Amino acid sequence: MDRTAAAPTRRVSPLPQFNISTSTLAFDQHFTTNAKGILLLAEILSGMLVWILIGGTDYFRLSALCWVMFVSVLLWILTICLFIIYLTGVHSRIPQIPWTTLSLCFNCAAAALYLVTAVVEAVCVGQATRGRHNYNCWTASAFFAFLATLCYAGSGYLSYRLWKTTEEEH
To answer: Measured between alpha carbons, how far is 40 from 31 in angstroms, rounded to an integer?
Structure first.
C-alpha cells in the first residue's frame, strides 16, 4: 500500500500580524516619574474623586449630575486603559496605531468634556442646601472636576508638543 503523505500546506493570513506576546511586555519603571505619567496618575485620581463624591449622594435627582457621572466614569476607565498601555509599553509594540495623534485627540476631547462637566457641576452646587451632605460632596467634586480639566489640558499640551515634533520629523 502506497500511502503518500500529504505535505502540510501553510495558510497565509490576510490579516497583519502584530508583535504582541505577553513575554515581551515589560513594566516601564520610569514612566510614572515623567510628566506624562504623573499627569495620567493625577487624571486617574481626580477623576475617581469626582465620581466617588457624586456617587455617594442622591445625584440621580438631577439629570445634569447623571451626565457628570457618565463623563467622569467613562474618562476614568479610558484613562486607566491608556495608563496601562503606556506603562506596559504596548504602544511601542503596535506601531500601526498613531499613538501621539491618538493621545492628542483623547486629551483634548477629555479636557473639553471635563470643562463642560465641571461647569455643569458647579451650577448644580447652587441647587443644593449649603452645609448639607450633597452640597459638600458636590462642591468637592466640582473642585476635582476642574482639577481634572487642568490635568487633561496639561496632558493635551504635552501631547501636542510631541505630535508637533514627530510631524516635523516626517
So the answer is: 10
- Joined together, the cell numbers standing for residue 140 give 468637592
* Residue 16, all three cell numbers: 497583519
Task: Supply the DSSP symbol for 97.
Answer: S
Burial class of residue 86 in the structure, from the number of CB atoms within 10 Å of its CB (0-12 exposed, 13-18 middle, 19+ buried): buried
Give residue limits of the domains in the chain: 31-169
User: Per-residue pLDDT averaged across 7-20, rounded?
Assistant: 55
Query: pLDDT per residue over 98-142, tens digit each?
Result: 999 999 999 999 999 999 999 999 998 887 777 777 889 999 999
Cell of 50: 469626582
Question: Nearest CA to 110 among 163, 156, 63?
Answer: 156
Helical residues (DSSP H) of the chain, grouped into ranges: 35-55, 63-88, 90-93, 99-125, 133-169
Rounded to an integer, the average pLDDT of 75-93 is: 93
| Sole residue written with cell 495558510 | 11
